[in-house]
C-alpha cells in the first residue's frame, strides 16, 4: 500500500463550513483521519496552519470567481 490519498470528491452545495455553515469550498483532510470543511473566508484563516500540521488541502475556492454562462434573450 502506498502513502497516496484517493482523489477527493468535488465539494457540492450540500457541503457546509464547519465554522459558520456557509457553502464549503475547502476540504482539509487531517493526517490522523477525518476532515474539516471551510468556506473560502474561514479556509483562508486556517489553511496555512492545517497544511503545516500535515493536512491535505482541497481548495475549490477558484469556482467563486468563475463567470457563469450568459442567458440568451430568446424570450423576447
From TrEMBL:
Q: Where is the composition biased (Polar residues)?
A: 63-76
Q: Which domain of life is it from?
A: Bacteria
The DUF7455 domain extends over: 11-64
- Where do the record's region annotations for Disordered lie? 56-76
Cite the InterPro entries for this sequence.
Answer: DUF7455
Task: Identify this protein by name.
Answer: DUF7455 domain-containing protein
Q: Which organism is it from?
A: Streptosporangium lutulentum
Amino acid at each position: 500500500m502506498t502513502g497516496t490519498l484517493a482523489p477527493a470528491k468535488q465539494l457540492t452545495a450540500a457541503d457546509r463550513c464547519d465554522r459558520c455553515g456557509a457553502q464549503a469550498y475547502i476540504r482539509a483532510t487531517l493526517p490522523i483521519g477525518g476532515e474539516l470543511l471551510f468556506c473560502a473566508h474561514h479556509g483562508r484563516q486556517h489553511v496555512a496552519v492545517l497544511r503545516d500540521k500535515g493536512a491535505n488541502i482541497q481548495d475549490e475556492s477558484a469556482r467563486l470567481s468563475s463567470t457563469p454562462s450568459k442567458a440568451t434573450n430568446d424570450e423576447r
